[in-house]
Amino acid sequence: MNRYRRRNWTDRTARSTITGGGLIIIASILAMLVFLVSQCVPLWSSPRIHAEESFAVPGAPSTPPSMMVAGANDFREVIFAVDAAGHARAWSSEGPVLAETDLLQNERITCARPLQLDAERWVIATDSLHVYPLVFSDGQYFEEGVRKYRPEFSLGPALSWQGQPAQLIAGSQEGDDLRVALASRDNHLLVLSRHEKKSLLGGSTVQDSETTIDVPDASRVTALELDGAGKHLYAGTAEGSLLEWSLGEGDPRLVGSHQALTAAVSHLGRLLGGSSIVVGGADGSVQVWFRARVEEDQQRLVQAHSFARMDAPVVGSAASSRNRLFLTYAADGQARLNFATTAQTRKRFAFANGAAPQLAIFAPRADGLVSVNPNGTIQSWSLHDPHPEASVRALFAPVHYEGFPDATYAYQSTGATDETEPKISLVPLIFGSLKGTLYAMLFSTPIAVFAALYTSVFMNRRLRAVVKPVMELMATIPSVVLGLLAGLWLAPRLQQTMPIALFSFIFLAGTVLLVGGTRRFLPNRAKQILRPGTEVIYLIPVLLVALVIVLSANGMVDGLFPGGFFEWIYRHFDIRYDQRNAVVVGIAMGLAVIPIIFSVSEDALSSVPRHLTAGSLALGATPWQTAWRVVLPAASPGIFSALMIGFGRAVGETMIMLMATGNTPIMDWSLFNGFRTLSANIATEIPEAPQGATLYRVLFLSALLLFAFTLLINTTAEIVRSRLRQRYSRF
């Protein structure tokens, strides 16, 4: 093979290798994008509800039985129901009856409500003026590795009252304390309480009490509900009012009367956590109310969410025990699956026969429903809605969260208990990313660009040969080291010197100008010693001395503010100082970004043709005029590219943002507050996010936003750089 063929073969091989490598990189980036999108798409999947098995009551008479209690176990493999006569049955999901018993003797159930959302604990009221706690247990056991069941029903000791049978009931249980509210046909309200006291020696005493509640004369109670802790009683009236009593430890007192609807309140229910109340109306209205702090140390009931009106009166609801998902159904058999946090109707469907069910209950895992058809048969439903929390509104719009007086942006993926309402708005994280990047660029851009300008135009060549490699070497410092120094060393020291630090930049800049201005008054011998381009060597000691002087005056400056600087800014401007704040991040991120911007900008400035600067100087321009009006415009495409590279570096930075910001997802432009960024949030929460869960996919959505944001920045940078290059192509 002669040298020409060998050269052609080498060229083709190199061209193919480079092309193949580029295609592999493009394919890898596209594959990453496709993977991120595939992980995010399930967040917006629609719910699926399907009717499954139905269970007929054995030996039921021609008149449809009135079923008062129904539900399922965790795996929906056991379905149970209790009719008005107290006859209890449990079926296997495959059809056979597993257990059957009579719970009552010569009594009939007049009303019943679940104590807990898992539907395994109920309270039932009978016509003999007794209230019984009812507990269902599926009796799960394993035999040769196969899960089997021995269902059991048990009634607790009865609570009794005097008067008429109850037509409405509501109950709550917290620990060993039981509280039941009853409404009779004559519009009387009663609260029955059972409190168990345990002694240190192991014994216990049970104390029952009965309290009568006065209903305003003009109100007729049509619906009843207790909050989860049993501390507040809510009653809906035929006039559309929502009455609220505080039960507490003493006598009940009416604390609120709210005109919720223009029609009668036909149903009340509560959601997970026991604080939010579902209000259904005879006109089909569906609302969610909860107590919120509207003023300091004051709470009141507020209407938080309103849903689309149903076509018939609302007759019942069911709430999930996993999230704020709830079902409402109307008298015409229409049902809607709603999510309270976002006020979104997830699904609309209809029960069989176009009539409202006698009862509907969520399965414990919220993966199904159990309803009682008008003919008394039990219907099992499957439900698949794994991510109701992650709507577009929840992620990017203000949401009225439970306990908040108004709609707001908030991020809090986990809480103290499983009942805490998840807050997954990405807006505070996007805001934090932009805030951290902005302050980092404000700190680093002038330093890096002017340092590059001085180095390329004014600095002595021998000194530049030392400075530039050192600056490029700074870019190799791991960001975790900068984050560690910023969070543990810089932040506490900056807090101690913050009053004077705010004024130190002005003082140091004035020092530089003063020293530079005195150079012209120096004698010729001193000017010969200070060779042009080496001024920075002599300026550094001056700046260090000035910095020591400034820091020594910190106590005096702090004393000028009554009560100290931090107390003064809080009292006059309502600004709290967090030790890890935007100032710390700006300095730390600036140190990470400065070497990159400096290096690329210096290369661009040094690449400006020498004949341009020589011509400018020959025409009488000063070196500074030449640098400002000739060198900078000619190098502007490269400088802009440097800024965009630094911007992208700051947006995607993780460790510095994680260690120096305090990770507080708040939306505040204050220099003295912390924040949380998208990248830091991913690093913080991905180890604890269950695979496939909502948080897991929201974190992938955060990564997709970072990907898109970086792509947008790079595309914009390339367009602007191309136009700048065309504009200054005459050079």
Automatic annotation (TrEMBL):
It is found in: Cell membrane; Membrane. SUPFAM superfamilies: MetI-like, WD40 repeat-like. It is a multi-pass membrane protein. The lineage of its organism: Bacteria, Candidatus Eiseniibacteriota. It comes from Eiseniibacteriota bacterium. One of its GO terms (cellular component) is plasma membrane. Keywords: Membrane, Transmembrane, Transmembrane helix, Transport. Belongs to the binding-protein-dependent transport system permease family. The chain crosses the membrane at residues 21-44, 438-458, 470-491, 497-515, 536-561, 581-600, 639-660, 698-720. This is ABC transporter permease subunit. Its main location: membrane. GO terms for biological process: transmembrane transport. It holds the Pfam family BPD_transp_1. Residues 430-717 form the ABC transmembrane type-1 domain.
